[in-house]
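> example.struct
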């Protein structure tokens, strides 16, 4: 990988956008590498939690609109956008819980990359912007789907129409960020969160994630049916009996994801 770094430690896979000189602006190559990485992670049972972050004190300044053209034939614009769409979907479809660890700027596609994660932890100096309108563009990387579900339609339109930069505290007040911490405490907090998730039952978490992601697209009856099917799967794993025995023995369970 040339534009991202992927590291693994005790069940936590960290994906770091790594173009610090450009505030981690996403090139075509970065989209390619993110897509390959997310698809690879989705197949790995040992990857229990995914942390997405940026190098050099910044998260992501969006797509690099001024990147040099590739040596090959020019790509059709719609095809190029559909490729970025595949990256957003690959992130969304990850069965593992995902955490965005945000320092510095998260704007445009970088903003929606952060908000597309299951959990968002931000340093107190982080800034967010749906900057598209200021670049003559409309929302992408899932922003039109994520924002209304996080903040409601009117606030989503305000963020999209004006493209203002908002602070981490403002983003938290809108419900876009779970936690805002002093910059020096962000790493330790995310590490602790990730460790708690690694110790959780992976199959059950994956199903809860799927149920919640689908919640606004189904009826109550469908949701209850889906919950019943998910619980049936859980009771067929070794993790649920392990949790019950651990409770009886007054110890922490050891979940294997099978």
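> example.seq
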């Amino acid at each position: 990988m040339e534009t991202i770094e992927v590291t693994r430690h005790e069940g936590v896979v960290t994906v770091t956008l790594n173009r610090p000189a450009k505030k981690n602006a996403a090139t075509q190559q970065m989209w390619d590498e993110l897509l390959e990485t997310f698809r690879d992670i989705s197949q790995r049972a040992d990857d229990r939690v995914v942390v997405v972050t940026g190098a050099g004190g910044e998260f992501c300044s969006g797509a690099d609109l001024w990147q040099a053209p590739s040596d090959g034939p020019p790509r059709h614009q719609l095809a190029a956008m559909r490729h970025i769409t595949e990256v957003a979907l690959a992130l969304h479809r990850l069965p593992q819980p995902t955490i965005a660890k945000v320092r510095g700027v998260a704007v445009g596609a970088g903003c929606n990359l952060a908000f597309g994660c299951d959990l968002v932890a931000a340093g107190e100096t982080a800034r967010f912007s749906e900057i598209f309108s200021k670049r003559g563009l409309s929302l992408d990387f899932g922003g039109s789907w994520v924002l209304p579900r996080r903040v409601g339609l009117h606030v989503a339109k305000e963020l999209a129409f004006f493209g203002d930069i908002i602070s981490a505290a403002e983003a938290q007040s809108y419900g876009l960020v779970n936690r805002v911490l002093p910059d020096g405490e962000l790493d330790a907090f995310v590490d602790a969160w990730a460790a708690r998730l690694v110790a959780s039952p992976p199959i059950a978490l994956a199903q809860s994630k799927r149920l919640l992601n689908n919640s606004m697209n189904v009826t109550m009856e469908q949701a209850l049916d889906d919950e019943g099917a998910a619980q049936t799967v859980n009771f067929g794993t070794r993790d649920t009996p392990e949790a019950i025995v651990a409770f009886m023995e007054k110890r922490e369970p050891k979940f294997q994801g099978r």
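> remarks
The chain is about 45% helix and 15% strand.
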